[in-house]
Write a structure and sequence with these properties.
The protein is an alpha/beta fold. It contains seven helices and 26 strands. The chain folds into four domains: about 160 residues, Molybdenum Cofactor Biosythetic Enzyme, Chain A (3-Layer(aba) Sandwich), CATH 3.40.980; about 50 residues, Molybdopterin biosynthesis moea protein, domain 2; about 80 residues, Molybdopterin biosynthesis moeA protein, domain 3 (Beta Complex), CATH 2.170.190.11; about 70 residues, MoeA, C-terminal, domain IV (Beta-clip), CATH 2.40.340. Bound molecules: adenosine monophosphate and magnesium ion.
Length: about 400
């Protein structure tokens, strides 16, 4: 089978993907979720003309000539409006956040005044409207301020709450079920016997999926038999994506594809022109997509980052995912690339001119989880890319999000 390009493989992975159904949750639980519908303001902010400072609410005409002596007729504090009217020659003591009383059109700040009993002397002129946040200064009822597909971070949550929302419609988290396969694997924390190795992929890939906004179900470690693979996969609970790690190549013990094909999976492809991680499987089983990641720990993380994370983002309908490709400036020269798209493990640091500077880690051996942990991005080298000089711009995929 000819090697598929990463681009073509990704297009096939994303083909026909529709966002997950909407569900309603409370705004206080919404961090990291993606809006299913545009959010329209239910309220106007500021809800009333409010004082922006501590001082005195006055009529501008009274403080056009200074010093001006005014009679203090009352007080307005946040949550405690003054219910009377401010007439010419009068002032109301006012605090930040209090409604500006009827009749007043300006607030003079406390620092520009001197109070004595029930009179105040204003020593600095203030133009009409000074120190007042007018009603609707931030937004008005009916304004659409957050569009569908917006990921809710702290700033969006503060805005949505101020807009008057509590229940909000977000995309259901995509459900990812993950199965490790291999007779040699023992669970994390267990001491490997002769010829055994700790299964690490399922946790790394699972954490990556969770960071992208998915719910993860771990299906454990399957022995290298068709029966165990099928039995464990059948425990997947309404998964949108079934992920297997290992056993996806063409060796005698690579049983994932035959086992799943016997269950009715349609297999979409096998081998992709990328490094690290050529053998990869993709298919459908009922409503679920199936992604068979390579067993090699670094390859499985790279393939998950390149194919699984965009699939999760598409299921979320996220319009500006934090996982999107970025640009960085090469710190060192690079050799020409071979025929496969190479994802170099690399460290990107911010630089003075705003463009991050990226350096590959010291070895690209695909077994090195220690260096994958040092990296914070994958530096993308397209197939056949010529040698690159230090200072050139290159695409990078962030690993931290
Ligand atoms: P496979 O794709 O099953 O041929 O596995 C390729 C290599 O990755 C072998 O050295 C496996 O021992 C290793 N491997 C497979 N699955 C895992 C896993 N879940 N965690 C860590 N290493 C794994
Ligand atoms: Mg195996």
């Amino acid at each position: 089978m000819a090697l598929l390009s990463v681009e073509e493989a990704l297009a096939r992975v994303l083909d026909g993907i529709a966002p997950t159904p909407a569900e309603t949750i409370m705004i206080e639980n919404a961090r990291g979720r993606v809006l299913a519908e545009p959010l329209r303001a239910l309220l106007t902010q500021s809800p009333f003309d409010a004082s922006a400072m501590d001082g005195y609410a006055v009529q501008a005409a009274d403080v056009a000539t200074i010093p001006a002596t005014l009679a203090i007729v009352g007080e307005a504090a946040a949550g405690h409006p003054f219910h009377g009217t401010v007439h010419a020659g009068q002032a109301v003591r006012i605090f930040t956040g209090a409604p500006v009383p009827t009749g007043a059109d300006t607030v003079v700040i406390q620092e520009d005044t001197a109070r004595s009993g029930d009179t105040v002397v204003v020593n600095e002129a203030e133009p009409k409207g000074g120190n007042i946040r007018t009603r609707g200064f931030d937004f008005r009822e009916g304004d659409v301020l957050l569009s569908a597909g917006r990921r809710l971070g702290p700033r969006e949550i503060a805005l949505a709450a101020a807009m008057g929302h509590r229940p909000i419609a977000v995309r259901r988290r995509p459900r990812v079920a993950i199965l490790s396969t291999g007779d040699e694997l023992v669970p994390p924390g267990a001491r490997p016997g002769p010829g055994q190795i700790v299964s690490s992929n399922h946790l790394g890939v699972g954490a990556l999926c969770e960071a992208a906004g998915a719910d993860v179900q771990q299906l454990g470690i399957a022995r290298d038999t068709r029966e165990d693979i099928v039995a464990r996969l059948s425990n997947a609970d309404g998964a949108d994506i079934l992920v297997t790690c290992g056993g996806a190549s063409v060796g005698d013990h690579d049983l994932v594809a035959p086992a799943l094909e016997a269950q009715g999976m349609s297999l979409a492809f096998w081998k992709i022109a990328l490094r690290p991680g050529k053998p990869m499987m993709f298919g459908r089983l009922g409503a679920a997509r199936v992604m068979g990641l390579p067993g090699n720990p670094v390859s499985s993380m790279v393939c998950a980052r390149v194919f699984l994370i965009p699939l999760i983002q598409a299921l979320l309908g996220d319009t500006a995912p934090p996982t999107a490709e970025q640009q960085a400036r090469l710190a060192v020269p690079l050799d020409a690339n071979g025929p496969r798209q190479h994802y170099l493990r690399a460290v990107s640091v911010s630089a003075g001119d705003g463009m991050p500077v990226v350096t590959p880690v010291r070895s690209q051996d695909s077994s090195l989880l220690s260096l994958l942990a040092e990296a914070n991005c994958l530096l993308v080298r397209p197939p056949g890319a010529p040698a690159a000089a230090a200072g050139e711009l290159v695409p990078v995929l962030p690993l931290d999000f």
